[in-house]
Design brief:
Shape: globular
Distance between the termini: 81 Å
Length: 160
């Protein structure tokens, strides 16, 4: 039979274990403030942008960039951990979307060769833009967003 001291020690150890699981399981190891979900759509001339990258660049010096992959017109942002969103604040937004023919790069990789820099550079040079180039620079895109301390839906309708 357990003595009162044994019971007390077991209770303390059990509570300490539960506290450890809660604290470690819920903590964020990035050291960043709380991020909030940001998702939305990107359309060009009324049609979803098939693929690309969207980047939110903070307008404040103490901000942190967040970005995401555009797939079939939809995106969600990541700052540090996949899908963690963005810090609250104001952002300039850029969209980069190109169709790149990687046939030659894939053929080189399939052949077991790892040095395909030249083929990749050629494919990048010949890539077909899916949106106007002005959207790829923060100073010319004209796109902005305000991330609030809540779940955020931010949609962009791009034109020429």
């Amino acid at each position: 039979m357990a003595t009162p001291n044994t019971f007390t020690r077991r209770a303390v150890v059990t509570l300490a274990g539960v506290w450890f699981v809660i604290v470690v399981g819920c903590s964020d190891t990035t050291g960043l403030a709380k991020r909030y979900p940001v998702s939305g759509t990107v359309n060009y001339l009324g049609k979803p942008v098939e693929k690309g990258t969207i980047t939110f660049t903070p307008t404040q010096a103490d901000g942190r960039t967040a970005s995401g992959t555009i797939t079939n017109g939809s995106y969600s942002l990541t700052t540090a951990d996949p899908g963690d969103g963005a810090l609250p604040g104001s952002y300039k937004v850029t969209v980069t979307a190109k169709e790149m023919d990687t046939t030659e790069v894939k053929a080189i990789a399939k052949g077991g060769q790892f040095h395909h820099d030249e083929a990749f550079a050629k494919a990048a040079k010949n890539a077909k833009p899916l949106v106007p180039a002005k959207y790829s620079l923060a100073d010319t895109s004209g796109l902005t967003a305000e991330v609030k301390a809540q779940s955020n839906k931010v949609n962009f309708d791009l034109t020429d």
